[in-house]
Amino acid sequence: MNVKLNNPDKGLDPEIIRADFPILSRKVHNKPLVYFDNAATTQKPQAVIDALVGYYTGINSNVHRGVHYLSQQATIAFEEVRGEIQHFVNAKFSHEIIYTRGCTEAINLVAASWGKVNVGKGDEILISGMEHHSNIVPWQMLCEEKGAVLKVCPLHPDGSLDMEAYSTMLGEKTRLVAITHISNTLGTINPVKEITRLAHEKGIAVLIDGAQALSHMKVDVQDIGCEFYAFSAHKVYGPMGIGALYGKEDVLNAMPPYQGGGEMIKSVTFEKTLYNELPFKFEAGTPNVGDVIGFGAALDYISAIGIERIAAWEQELLRYATEKLSADPTIRIIGTAPEKASLISFLIEGIHPFDAGTIIDHMGVAVRTGTHCTQPLMDGLGISGTIRASFAFYNTKQEIDRLMEAIEKVKEFFL
Fold this sequence. Notes:
This protein folds into two domains: 14-32 and 306-414, Alpha-Beta Complex (Aspartate Aminotransferase, domain 1), CATH 3.90.1150.10; 50-303, Type I PLP-dependent aspartate aminotransferase-like (Major domain) (Aspartate Aminotransferase, domain 2, 3-Layer(aba) Sandwich). A seven-stranded mixed beta sheet has the order 4-10-9-8-7-5-6, with helices on both faces. The protein has a four-stranded antiparallel beta sheet with strand order 13-14-17-16, covered by helices on one side. It has a two-stranded antiparallel sheet with strand order 1-2. Helix 5 links the parallel strand 5 (124-128) and strand 6. The chain has helices spanning 14-18, 46-59, 69-89, 103-118, 137-146, 163-169, 192-200, 221-224, 249-254, 289-305, 307-326, 353-362, 375-381, 397-414; strands at residues 27-28, 31-32, 34-35, 97-100, 124-128, 149-153, 174-180, 205-209, 228-232, 243-247, 265-268, 273-275, 331-334, 343-348, 365-366, 368-370, 386-390. It is of the alpha/beta class.
């Protein structure tokens, strides 16, 4: 594990950490890269890249199905990562971790399987006004199929969840609450433990979209108490195309399979199929073994540094960037909740986000522009999109200064 640390009892040094990420040393448009698009995907440390190469060059084989050496080694590595994920999110059992293609598929799995037997005509599913499309569309599809109703909890003007409204909206017909842990557009950190407690008081199940949370803060699913927690590897310095669903053992056992095929069966005849036990009941077909192993390497890397140290530095970056952007009267920050993760959405007065983003990119700074897959949120705010700068622990205050310089170039060009 190539993790370079100073004294682990002190704050991390991002300049030392950056050496572990090969892509951060490259240039774009002949300028050193400043990567502020971490909410879309994080960059990968050499340890993750090495893990992927190591799998394909050393033990490439299908898992669970062979007695030969490579298959056994691949299976051991594959299942060890399931245990790592279990401990990373503090699940009670490793078989409560279901491998998926990512957070989106994890949510769709719950909608298709749990929703199939637990949601009926006239029932309600409650989401919030800040949700990503991945935590809206699957529930819309389920509601259309079942004749159920999708309810949306409103937000306060600062982008925080209206908890009074939320409590009021939990009714006898509510079957599920599906809410993001951290908004990918506003940065709002939702009080998911309280959200879950209030839902459980009325016998309502809870799914948390954790796509943005895993890389920024300690996640403890037992402490939260939710039935489901969904997340992706590529948001936490791992490969794309792999993620996981945490589900409580008893809830998962009561759910029908998500897909049919190999691996998810115990016995098959032409007359009847007996389904496999957890977690394999929900993992049909050949899994993405290499990227699972890469996911494990990413979690090892984060654990070696310490999520608390990461969170502390990212909050310092958020404070610094908020101070800099707020000092410019032409800039409007979208999302000012008291509890935020390290991202800022903003607008520059009189300049379309796409136009601003194009100039910022030519200054070597990668930001995201648009609706960020939260179009209903944008419609509610009365805007067409934002510029989003999202920070990771390998970012620096000097890079934020580079962003401010790029914004000045934007204003010189358009104003």
